[in-house]
Every structure is written in C-alpha cells, then in structure tokens.
Design goal:
Blueprint lengths: L1 E4 L2 E4 L3 H5 L1 H18 L4 H4 L7 H14 L5 H6 L4 H5 L6 H18 L3 H18 L14
Antiparallel strand pairs: 1-2
Keywords: Heme, Iron, Metal-binding, Transport
Family: Belongs to the truncated hemoglobin family. Group II subfamily.
GO molecular function, one term: oxygen binding
Length: 146
C-alpha cells in the first residue's frame, strides 16, 4: 500500500512512514543537532560545522526524507547526494565518526521506540558514518558543508 505525498508515492511500510513522516524526521534531526551543540563529547565534530546549524539541519532533513523512502527533497534541490564527495574536503576521522554517531545514537534512542526499526536505522547510520571516514588525522579539520 502507498500514500501520495507532495507528488511522491510513499510506501506505507517505508522507514519514512514507520517513523511518522516529516514531523518525526524533523524531531530526530533537531534532537541530533541539539545534542551535537550541547554534548562536550561532540566537540570535535561540532567544530566542523558552521556556527549556526540551521543549514546543516535543513540538509540532513531533506536527505533523510528521501533516504528513508519519503519525498526526495535533497535530490530535487541539489541532485545526487554524493555524500563522500561532498564531504571529501573535510577531514573526517574516527573521532568525528564516533562523535557523530554518539549524537545520532542518543537521538535515535530518544525518538525511535520500535526496537527493530531503531536497530535497522542505527546500523544504516553506522555504515554511512564509517563510509565518510577519509583520514585518520584530525589535526587539519575544517568546516563542514551545509
């Protein structure tokens, strides 16, 4: 079964739908960036981002909308995500990966109550975060794209 949303067909069994659609993804993204801003343990990954996280939050929301099976907002606006290529200019090492995952794991724990869905999303994020690692040296880290 599918629902139509913003000229996009969204499967009722998609992650997007199972999470609760756009409001739930906004809540996840907002909580994720609040944690990144507040947790001292996320200092290294936070400093890769601009002072305002609004642009980053908007990009992540749009990306996750499509990645989770909802409207492909990011692709419509910016084309293929090419995540690794877009992040290539920025030093992302194990520390940044782990700090990013710390924030995402906590946001998921607070926002996703279905254990199987939570575990599947966390594994997918973990794989993506590992794929973004492009260095072991974090001494030359600079700002992250919005």
């Amino acid at each position: 079964m599918t629902d139509t949303l913003d000229d996009t067909t969204v499967a009722t069994d998609s992650v997007y739908t199972r999470l609760g659609g756009a409001p739930a993804i906004h809540a996840l993204v907002d909580r994720f960036y609040t944690l990144m801003d507040e947790l001292p343990e996320a200092f290294t990954v936070r400093r890769l981002h601009p002072d305002s996280l609004a642009g980053s939050a908007d990009s992540l929301f749009k990306y996750l909308s499509g990645w989770f099976g909802g409207p492909p907002l990011y692709i419509r606006e910016r084309g293929h995500p090419r995540l690794r290529m877009r992040h290539a200019p920025y030093a992302i090492g194990p520390v940044e990966r782990d700090e990013w995952m710390l924030c995402m794991r906590q946001a998921l724990a607070e926002q996703v109550t279905d254990p199987a869905l939570h575990d599947a999303i966390e594994r997918a994020f973990s794989d993506m975060a590992q794929h973004m690692v492009n260095t072991r040296d974090t001494s030359h880290a600079v700002g992250c794209p919005r």
